UniProtKB/TrEMBL annotation:
It holds the Pfam family MBOAT_2. This is Wax synthase domain-containing protein. One of its GO terms (cellular component) is membrane. One of its GO terms (biological process) is lipid metabolic process. The chain crosses the membrane at residues 106-127, 139-159, 171-189. One of its GO terms (molecular function) is O-acyltransferase activity. Its main location: membrane. It comes from Rhizophagus irregularis.
Length: 213
């Protein structure tokens, strides 16, 4: 029997090399993958979602004070993080429901009112849950906003292209929209002002603690 020379260094076989590379790769995997909590594909999906959420998400507000129309204000400048939710939960379902029965304009109107209705209900719920009272002012505020949105589209947009607005017209619309905002603003802020003592932040947190207990 031929004896092996101990001074000769054997080259690793291909399976051994592959196994070593796999072990090295596993060492760099997340602990969530190594522990079996997440599969590599799920881990990658969550990682990509977090990166997208942190770096590609729209800003919450986009200079709402320069809005010259309700559409500009609500669609492109105000609460951009959640306005898609109102569209998906309110506008689109109701619009699709009514479009098979009524004209497209009526369906759009009902969809807009539905989206504002969901927003109104959410704000009313926050007041009821934290202050144990219902005033209806937030419902009035948002539903009135919905009606103004529709009337604005009928008066200013229906028979005129958006690109035909001159600077003077845009300025006048901005002034008109600002006046409307100032008139309706008390209905939005007064329920909170009456029920929370903003000079003492503990009074606000106390409502949340009491409600959760």
């Amino acid at each position: 029997m031929k004896k092996e020379n101990p001074s000769i260094i054997k080259s690793p076989t291909t399976p051994q090399i592959n196994k070593k590379l796999i072990n090295q790769k596993n060492d760099h995997n997340s602990i969530l993958i190594r522990s079996g909590i997440l599969t590599p594909s799920v881990y990658v999906s969550i990682k990509e979602w977090i990166i997208t959420f942190l770096f590609n998400t729209k800003h919450l507000f986009s200079e709402p004070f320069i809005s010259s129309s309700p559409r500009d204000f609500w669609s492109t400048r105000w609460q951009l993080l959640i306005n898609e939710s109102f569209k998906e939960l309110g506008y689109l379902p109701v619009k699709n429901l009514f479009v098979s029965i009524f004209s497209r304009k009526i369906a759009n109107i009902m969809g807009v009112l539905s989206a504002f209705g969901i927003s109104a209900s959410l704000h009313e719920y926050l007041i009821i849950a934290n202050a144990y009272t219902w005033t209806g002012e937030h419902f009035f505020f948002f539903m009135t906003r919905g009606v103004i949105f529709i009337l604005w589209e009928v008066v200013f947009i229906s028979n005129k292209s958006k690109n035909e607005n001159t600077m003077i017209e845009k300025f006048l619309k901005w002034v008109l929209f600002l006046i409307i905002n100032l008139i309706l603003l008390p209905a939005l802020i007064e329920p909170s002002m009456r029920n929370f003592d903003f000079s003492d932040i503990s009074s606000i947190s106390k409502n949340f603690v009491d409600y959760s207990i």
